[in-house]
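INFO worker-7 received task bundle
INFO bundle size: 2
INFO processing item 0
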Amino acid sequence: MALTNKSNTSARTFKHLSEFDRGKIKALLEEGLSPAQIARRLGRHRSTISREINRGTTTQLRSDLTTYKAYFPETGQAVYENNRLECGKKLKALQVEPFLQYAEKKILKGKWSPDVVVGAARRKGKFDKSKMVCTKTLYSYIDRGILGVRNIDLSLKTRRKQRKPAGRRHKRLLGKSISDRPESVDKRNEFGHWEIDTVIGKRSKDSALMTLTERKTREHMVFLLETKNAEAVDKVLGYIKEQCGPLFTRLFKSITADNGSEFSSLNKHGTNIYYAHPYSAWERGTNERHNGLIRRFIPKGKAIKDLTLEQIKRIENWCNNLPRKILGYRTPIELFNYEIQRILETVPDMQPVS
């Protein structure tokens, strides 16, 4: 006598039960069907149905305080979803705990970004590749609360939309336009081209900071101004020129500024000066970015006059010792010192710049 399959439903292989399947199991159990009968009705293996019933069965309390056991689809679904979270590759966090501790310290105390932490650690070989995670995973761990770092602790976690340069005409032009700046400056192939700006504090008439950023190396210089005007800016540039001596024109081949009145006398210092278009801060994007780094320590509304020279120098050193992805996770001070050394090698008997 030939055996026949009592179910006209073809068996499905390696397909997980759905919420709808669990609802049908509940209904068939209430009809009094056994696990084997339910398996034939649903075209599943009886072991699959038995395991599901065991997962979803819980003990309930009646009004008369007696207990009973019953299958609940919701319970089965919840247990299934929890088990799925435990499947696959195990969390690597426990295997890379020293690296995560290092990352937490650098982000919270060093104010590094997660990408800088990963990139600098790889470049310097601080951890074996198997003992650390990539940038994406580190961000994921932060999102999931695995580190003692929160998203609010990250200075930047946004994807900024690039602005397209718009053709603007100068209402006031203090000198040569940025449009006349050589292409070599735009491409950052040559050392010695700077961007300049000021950072104001609580009041615009209060003390201010003057910042200079070298486009190729990202070296960032920060100086305290007694007030935000052309005389104060000229005084600082005069000091820099005096310190550099005959090397000034090789270290400062050009400076790009906005059309603020404090930069109206830059041309007197013997270097090429270019002025950006109005309302076009992105044309001095390198300097703007670094001024944003300064704002991590000096938020808007904080009086500049309350800062000591030691505090300003500490902020400057932090900026110049921060590894950068765009520099291959090297630091601005590394590249700046390299460029200075190259210049000194071409000038005999020249002392290093102070």
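INFO item 0 finished
INFO processing item 1
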Amino acid sequence: MDFSKLNNDVTDLTTKIVEWAGSALPNVIATLLILGIGWWLSGYAARGIASIVEKQPYVDPTLKGVLKRIVRWGLLILVFVAALGQLGVATTSMLAALGAIGLAIGLALQGTLANIAAGVMILWLRPLRVGEFIEAGDAAGTVNEVGLFATNMTTFEGVSLFVPNSKLWDTKVINYTRSNPRMVRETFGIAYEDDIAKARKTLLAMVAENDKVLTSPEPVIYVSSLGDNAVGLELRAWTKGPDWVETRFELIEGGKLALDAAGISIPFPQRDLHIKDIPPSLAEVGAKDSNSESAA
């Protein structure tokens, strides 16, 4: 083995590595600085945008989460491109390649893009906002955040719900919070022999004592049905949207107690059987069974 030649080769390689490191190291350090500062700056800018949105009363809080993510990821993309340019990568061709890759990914992730499109439409038309209680299909809860891909909600029982935006956009959305005032409709059944006028007066007096019930529109009571076991009296009263659930429960309990105190019964389902004629054959069988039991 020619050690002198090997030594010369190692020396040449070391020299080239040192020369490359001397020329490339500043670019590497600059790239790392760009990435680090850009990462911190994007997070700071996103938090700043969110803080500005919270302080502006005319800006819908629903936009907070979306604007925060758009600012952060937009700045990160610019930082990444700048870092590649610092390393000497041709960013023009890189952007073209990224565009082609993005097109292929978009075709493969049509469902995800549908969620983004639905999120944009929700933010544009605003059928729901943060803090509102909605029902959409089998999902119901208070909206916490509307993101680019999905909407975060909390159900009435306090369970967290994560719903894709396309599911909300493709179905009927019922917004209970915006309905103000809201009607409470409950039916109370009374016996056929009870006095309808007395029952109506009793229920209206109970409603008048509830301070959550609005006086305009005025509460009313109608005979809504003549059922098999009871006469149905439908109570219609109006209350503020946020008080609807509590008012409904109070009127149901108050109506029951008021009717009981007035001596008006709320009948339960029952059947009266009237036997007019018994065929002779059945009568004989019944008599034989009775005689057999007596003998035993």
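INFO item 1 finished
INFO post-check item 1: The chain has eight helices and eight strands.
INFO post-check item 1: The chain has three domains: 3-108, 126-175, 179-296.
INFO worker-7 idle
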